[in-house]
Design a protein that fits this description.
Number of helices: 7
Strand content: 15-25%
Helix content: 40-55%
Order of helices and strands: HHEHEEEHEHEEHEEHEE
Strand order of the largest sheet: 4-6-7-11-10
Length: 279
């Protein structure tokens, strides 16, 4: 027994040291991302400011004005990517506290859909060309049990997820499509299905979304995270490139942080948002 106890204590010490080492690594990574983001923002704001001045001073319709406008749009996109990177890193390392409050998903869905339908155009990202909403129709169907549903959630982050997914349908089908949002409850979960009749979701993107953030137990019995984290290489074990889907990763991380999930259905046209009831 003394030998067994000694082995258990040694193993416990090793696991504790490993846990501390991993926590230190995560802290350093977070600090690095925060530092780089801060260092980029100052020169980036200067680029945006000077580009705006050059765009205003240049002759209307000239090459100089077009070039200045392109520089400004590109800088704005970089700024948005920095914000997304910071949010994703906080979500991945559980450093983004949820602002939980009573949330009514039915009202949140109506508000989000109304925002899109009442807008003349949609801008997918800062500096991007606006897409006219004339060719889009959004159908919202809420079943009775979903109508009266109330959950504890971060309403702001959930609305971001909804805007991201509906916005993706618009972004990837600029000529127009029909978008369907179907919300219901089943087996103690709230489910929101968002689909469209446009170009569909590429299979490789669907695989990445479905695997990202999922957990499994390895052969050694240790909990391991499968999928794609920010520091992973551009290719996975299959040799196929991993799509750059920052917005979708953020959306799934938000769902996971609420104890839920986000998956692409086999039809490659429907994304399901799943939230546990009673949270």
């Amino acid at each position: 027994l003394s030998e067994l106890i000694g082995s258990l204590n040694k193993t416990s010490d090793m696991l504790s040291e490993q846990k501390q080492s991993l926590a230190k690594r995560d802290d350093l990574r977070m600090e690095w991302i925060r530092g780089v983001s801060h260092d980029i923002r100052t020169p980036l704001s200067m680029v945006i400011g000077y580009a705006e001045e050059l765009e205003e001073d240049a002759e209307e319709g000239s090459d100089e004005q077009s070039a200045a406008g392109y520089i400004k749009e590109s800088a704005l996109k970089i700024s948005e990517l920095i914000d997304d990177l910071n949010l994703l890193s906080k979500l991945e390392y559980n450093r983004q506290p949820l602002r939980l409050s009573p949330c009514y998903p039915a009202g949140l869905l109506r508000e989000t859909v109304a925002d899109f339908m009442n807008s003349e155009s949609f801008v997918a990202a800062q500096g991007a060309e606006p897409i006219s909403m004339d060719g889009f129709d959004i159908e919202l169907l809420l079943l009775p049990e979903f109508e009266k549903l109330s959950i504890e959630a971060d309403c702001g982050l959930l609305k971001r997820v909804l805007r991201n997914l509906i916005g993706n349908s618009i972004k990837h089908n600029p000529k127009g499509c029909s978008i369907a949002v179907f919300a219901h409850c089943a087996e103690g979960r709230a489910i929101i299905d968002i689909s469209d009749d446009g170009s569909g979701i590429p299979k490789r993107v669907a695989e990445c979304i479905n695997s990202y953030g999922s957990e499994l137990v390895s052969e050694e019995g240790e909990r391991a995270e499968e999928g794609h984290t920010m520091d992973e290489a551009a290719e996975d074990g299959s040799g196929a490139p991993i799509p750059h889907i920052m917005g979708m990763r953020i959306a799934k991380r938000i769902m996971l942080s609420h104890g839920g999930n986000m998956t692409v259905k086999p039809d490659l046209r429907t994304i399901s948002l799943i939230l546990p009831l009673g949270r």
